[in-house]
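Backbone-to-sequence.
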């Protein structure tokens, strides 16, 4: 695990698979999503779970435990800047609800659409043309005792 901020760029479906793995289980507040139609730019900030710091359900480098000796993992703020966005469509999500917190399950790309799939039937679809996605961690990470798990 490193203290260096993660920085990635995506320009095709294979790149999006990497981005999807990195962002799995991120928390996405709707108040941190903005579409600039005139610039064809969509920006969102998520609270990324640092899967790069987890191996076999335990932290790679253990963080100091809290008062009750609970194991701690990490989250960090992460910005996504997507250029070449022609349109944004939401299904099962109210983008105008400033209190909505979405749990990101995965992202996929099927030209010309970038699909964000959230827990609870929420979907966001971006129509792309001549696009590029940049991802960058920023700020300090913070501890969390919650390790995301997925029912099979």
């Amino acid at each position: 695990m490193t203290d260096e901020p993660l920085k990635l760029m995506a320009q095709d479906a294979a790149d999006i698979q990497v981005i999807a793995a990195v962002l799995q289980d991120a928390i996405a507040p709707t108040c941190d999503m903005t579409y600039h139609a005139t610039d064809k730019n969509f920006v969102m900030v998520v609270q990324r779970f640092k899967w790069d710091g987890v191996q076999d359900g335990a932290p790679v480098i253990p963080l100091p435990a809290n008062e009750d000796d609970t194991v701690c993992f990490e989250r960090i703020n992460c910005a996504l800047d997507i250029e070449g966005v022609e349109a944004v469509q939401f299904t099962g999500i109210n983008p105008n609800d400033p209190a909505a917190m979405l749990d990101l399950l995965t992202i996929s790309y099927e030209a010309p659409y970038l699909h964000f799939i959230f827990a609870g039937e929420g979907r966001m679809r971006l129509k792309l043309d001549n696009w590029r996605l940049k991802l960058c961690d920023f700020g300090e990470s913070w501890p969390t005792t919650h390790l995301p798990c997925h029912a099979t």
